[in-house]
Design a protein that fits this description.
- This protein has about 220 residues and is an alpha+beta fold.
- The protein folds into two domains: about 35 residues; about 150 residues, Rieske [2Fe-2S] iron-sulphur domain (Rieske Iron-sulfur Protein), CATH 2.102.10.
- It has four helices and nine strands, in the order H-H-E-H-E-E-H-E-E-E-E-E-E.
- It has a six-stranded antiparallel beta sheet with strand order 1-9-8-4-3-2. Strands 5-6-7 form a three-stranded antiparallel beta sheet, with no helix packed on it.
- Strand 5 and strand 6 form a beta hairpin.
- The radius of gyration is 28 Å and the shape is globular.
- About 30% of the residues are buried.
- Bound molecules: FE2/S2 (inorganic) cluster.
- FE2/S2 (inorganic) cluster (FES) binds next to loops.
């Protein structure tokens, strides 16, 4: 025998009570809302470092002397990593001497810039650490090869950012550099300058088989 039916079974939910169906609907709706919020938060977290890092504007990174105070190896050809905007600041004459087997000491590479100046004749390059293949962050110059080597899929670039090996479609992207009123270098990150086409070989014409590498 079954007992007497409840009020809800006979008449539906009382006024002010929620039916099981609308209760479930609200639970599902809340779940979807929560997932959307998480997605939004994840997207903002992805974008935030770039926004906070100053990409998109003029970034003053100080004079050559300021950089060397923070990172003395810069005068000896090792690029200075400016992390807030994910940049390599390359002291071109020092890096060139390093690759050519000399002992570089270039405390002030000077102020020669401009799109019409060949890469190797510029004082300083601001290379974007975002690999032009699929966007991985490129680590510091590989000590064995003195090339930038992306560890994700093995694209390799000279210290000027010219591509030498791997799946990347071009050389490393860069930003324009100028000198501010205080004599410090200013990087214009409002516009990404597309990397040099494959086959550009200004100097350091070694092939990938000529030396050991950090990436595969
Ligand atoms: S992301 Fe750098 S080689 Fe693929």
């Amino acid at each position: 025998m079954t007992g007497p039916a409840s009020y809800g079974e006979v008449h539906g939910p009382r006024v002010g009570e929620m039916s099981r169906r609308s209760f479930m609907r609200r639970i599902v709706g809340a779940g979807v809302g929560l997932l959307s919020l998480q997605f939004l938060a994840g997207s903002l977290a992805f974008l935030w470092p770039n926004i906070r890092g100053g990409l998109g504007g003029q970034i003053s990174i100080g004079t050559a002397a300021d950089i060397i105070t923070q990172f003395p190896e810069w005068a000896a050809g090792t690029p200075y990593i400016y992390n807030p905007a994910r940049l390599f600041i390359v002291n071109v004459p020092a890096a060139k001497a390093l690759v050519e087997g000399q002992t570089p000491d270039v405390p002030d590479p000077g102020t020669t810039f401009g799109e019409d100046v060949p890469l190797a004749d510029r004082s300083v390059l601001a290379l974007y650490r975002k690999c032009p293949h699929l966007g991985c962050q490129i680590p510091q110059l590989c000590e064995q090869s003195e090339w930038f080597e992306c560890l994700c899929h093995g694209s390799k670039y000279t210290v000027l950012g010219e591509k030498r090996d791997g799946p990347a479609p071009r050389g490393m992207d860069s930003f324009a550099v100028s000198v501010g009123e205080d004599g410090g270098y200013v990087i214009d990150t409002s516009e990404v300058i597309s990397g040099p086409p494959v086959g550009t070989a200004t100097f350091d014409t070694r092939g990938p088989g000529d030396m050991p590498h950090c990436s595969g």
